[in-house]
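Suppose you are handed only these lines of text.
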Amino acid sequence: MKDQKITNQDDLQSFSSLSESMEKLDLHGRKCLIPEMNRIGCNLLAGAFRGFGIDASVMETGKGLDLAMEYSSGKECYPCHITLGDILYYLKQEKKRLGDSFNADNYVYFMPEADGPCRFGMYNKYQRIVLDSFPDLKSLKIASITTQDGYSLDKMMGKRVVRDFRKAVFLSLMVGDILDRILWRIRPYEKEQGMADDFIERAMTCMADAFEAHSAGKDFNGIHNKLEKIIKEGKEIIDPDIPRKPLVGMVGEIYLRSHTMANQDLIRTLERHGAEVVNASVVEWVNFISYNRLRSAKIGLRLNLKLFRLHEVLAQLKSVASLTGELWYQEYRQKYVYNMARGILDIADDHQVSHLERVLKKESIFDFDIGTEACLSISGILEYAQNGYNGVVNVYPFTCMPSTVTSSVISPAMNRRGIPYIDTPYDSGVQPGREAAIRTFMYQANQHMKRHGRKKTSVIEK
Ligand code: SF4
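From them, the structure of the protein bound to iron/sulfur cluster can be written out as follows.
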């Protein structure tokens, strides 16, 4: 690959492809490549895409890190390296497989972005520049969705079905969260080692097929019914004679906490040292984006009302109404599916973002006005503490800005409460003292449970 690297600096400097080849484009007719973040959720998402006629699949992850290192400076965030490596490795394998008939125009790389003060908004642009440095990869398109418009999927699908597509995508991410929660609930108590992992692999394939079969017809009941059967099967794996273990809550940067290779399988490591873990969900982030957009629209509306700008007030009213509807739908659907799941197995409920903002306001140590994932992590930790968790882990890429802020703000608050807390930053290296730190943390979590017990698995009680 390296010998094909382009040397024409004009081409690199023009950056024209940043707008031309990175856009919201119709996903049909090309192979849609999804980078893996949380394995289950991404596979269900690909199933939902296929249900709408998009030839989508999740790329193998973690094998292209060396390739990524060749084309990066080392200063980028770790998730940027992993995703860059995944796309480069995938295309390299495709070139090997197809030889001269390889054509990058046949693929579209699906890479979301976020606006805000940190580097996530630049991943896809940076990756575009790297891809453009290979003449035969220039025509590969990047389909980019952004937090600026609440990850709107308009233009990726015909107007007639884009709403249904959005609903199916949301549901796939949420069911992915629920399957993860089932795994974390049953694996520490499985009757035989390996049962939970085998079960969840089968469950993931089965639910991905369900999304492929039922998404386009809006047959969400077909999906719910499959999920219900899976939860009942999963419950049988629990050995009722194994006593409940210390409950550990996890927060942090979304990619790192969801990607098991990137976090060196932290949940499994904690379980090996005697924990039952609940990680923050992926849908929490999606709801946070919707919530923040609604929050900003309301602030704009109040301001325009004060200034008596009638034209703007009308536009803002429309926007507030539509964003309220969007958030209401997401929370309603989430509550419905979680209630069904929790009626069978006591998995942890999910946070409601408005509740988290109230938690943060009450404590007065951070504010949603500051933004970033730190809002969710700090309030999520306070909520775990409030709900009787026995310890909290903050997991993030080395040098991650919002997570470093989280750590500095929350550490004293956890100290005051006497709740074990640990920061676990990751890059591609292995920290020699990590295992010992986790063992010590788990000792403290055990002591905490002995003194205070375990209150409830539910995260939200509104
Ligand atoms: S959230 Fe952290 S890891 Fe992600 S781009 Fe921002 S600084 Fe990097």
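What can we learn from it? Residues 243-280+351-462 form a domain with the Rossmann fold fold (CATH 3.40.50). The first helix runs from residue 9 to 14.
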